[in-house]
Amino acid sequence: MELALMRFKGFTLWCNPLSLEITSENTTADYNLIYAGQQYESTGKKCRVVKGKGVLSGKDCIEQYAKLYSLQTEGCKGVLSLPVTKPFEALFTKLTVLADTTPDTINYSFQFTEVSSEKLGVAETVHKVTKGETLFDIAFCYGVTVDALVKLNPQVRRPDELDMIKEIKVC
Question: What does the DSSP assignment read for 1-29?
């Protein structure tokens, strides 16, 4: 089985990271009840955190790193597609160059944090398209079908190219 390559905001890594850690947690609260003892209750889901390490290699590794760096410094949310889970909206929160770098390789580590529109209290009906996004990315993010987005957005000629589109109606 061949895994899909990692993507963020339309940028596809040439090869998947060497290590990938996806942390998903629920928060809990414990209550001391007078006659019933202690009781634990789930208080909700925390946003996922994705960490990993990878290697950029080849004569263009500096250009590859420059693109990653520009995505990280933008500070904007985007669709993160991983080889092991459905795509979701995230922020690129950390990018670090590791010490064992050579002229044709750059070793790096990264971190993404899931963005939850529930937690932000946002009920978006329009999605602002970022460079490199496709209708497939947006459909996964909002839990709708690509066909539904095509019907809502007749201006879209190709679901895999949204370069000239600024906004997509989601519902």
Answer: -PPPPPEETTEE-SS--SEEEEE--EEEE
60-96 tens-digit pLDDT: 989 999 999 998 888 778 889 888 888 888 889 999 9
Q: Give 132's contacts (C-beta < 8 A, 6+ positions apart).
A: 9, 10, 11
Closest to 117 in 3D by CA, of 160, 82, 145, 88: 88
| Exposure of 2 in the CB half-sphere (CA atoms within 13 A) | 3
Contact predicate 4/12, CB 8 Å: no
Please calculate the CA angle 113-119-121 and round it to the nearest 5 degrees.
135
pTM exceeds 0.85 for this model: no
Element (H, E) at 148: helix 146-152
- DSSP tag of 169: E
Q: Which amino acid is at 63?
A: E
DSSP state of 118: H
